[in-house]
Specification:
single chain, alpha+beta, eight-stranded antiparallel β-barrel
Length: 233
């Protein structure tokens, strides 16, 4: 009987060793997951703006907010990081102004200039949007360009930051006259550094919340599977 007892102890001891090994492996796996998550977070924050690039689009809207379908009503272009210092981040885009693709600032009534800036992806979504221009009437812009003046300013709002309506940005736009048509040729967005960092933090919170929700959904599915197994048993 002592021999059987000895074998039993050996089996228990081996089982404990396996469990400890598995626990250690699980711990290492969790550490690895945390390390990967931290890397992803640092990449998302992009502290030194090494990955700062994206696109902007400008369009002419009618009085009901619909994009006009005629020539000279919509353009899209990539923006580049022009400068980044302790005070602000400046993003700049050169806009097409050829015979077919351009934005015209006309002197007609009920036409509004609108635009959007976003990060990285070819298409804008709720997580990568930087700012939206506050629509401005083209007739007012055209009137401000009397004489030799070729540039004007509009305001933009960053929806992802808190109190965005009281922290409006300034977008500087340059125009060029071509065959009696006033076309946009360059856009420059200046974002105060504090707002730029706040926007990055907001994106990070959205990303972490999304991961958390996905994890909860996956856990819920697992629990249902376990309940299903118990019912089958």
């Amino acid at each position: 009987s002592s021999h059987l007892g000895s074998r039993g102890y050996d089996q228990v001891w081996n089982s404990l060793r396996v469990l400890r090994h598995m626990a250690g492996y699980a711990g290492e796996e969790k550490k690895g997951e945390k390390k990967d998550e931290k890397k992803a977070m640092m990449k998302l924050l992009d502290e030194n703006d090494e990955l700062a690039c994206g696109f902007c689009s400008f369009m002419i809207l009618d009085q009901d907010g619909y994009v006009k379908k005629t020539k000279g009503s919509a353009v899209e272009a990539p923006w580049h990081l022009a400068s980044s210092d302790a005070d602000a981040v400046v993003l700049q885009a050169d806009l097409p102004a050829n015979a077919l693709f351009f934005i015209q600032i006309s002197n007609e009534d009920t036409q509004y200039l609108y635009g959007e800036w976003w990060l990285a992806d070819p298409a804008k979504n709720k997580n990568n949007g930087i700012c939206d221009l506050i629509p401005k009437e083209c007739k007012i812009i055209h009137k401000s360009l009397d004489g030799d003046k070729t540039d004007f300013e509009v305001q933009a709002q960053m929806p992802l930051i808190k109190g965005s309506s009281s922290k409006l940005l300034t977008v500087k736009l340059k125009t060029k006259e071509q065959k009696f048509v006033t076309k946009l040729v360059q856009a420059e967005l200046r974002v105060p550094k504090a707002q730029w960092l706040e926007w990055k933090q907001s994106r990070l919170v959205l990303w972490r919340a999304s991961k958390s929700w996905k994890g909860e959904a996956a856990g819920g599915d697992d629990e249902k599977k376990e309940e299903g197994k118990k019912d089958d048993d």
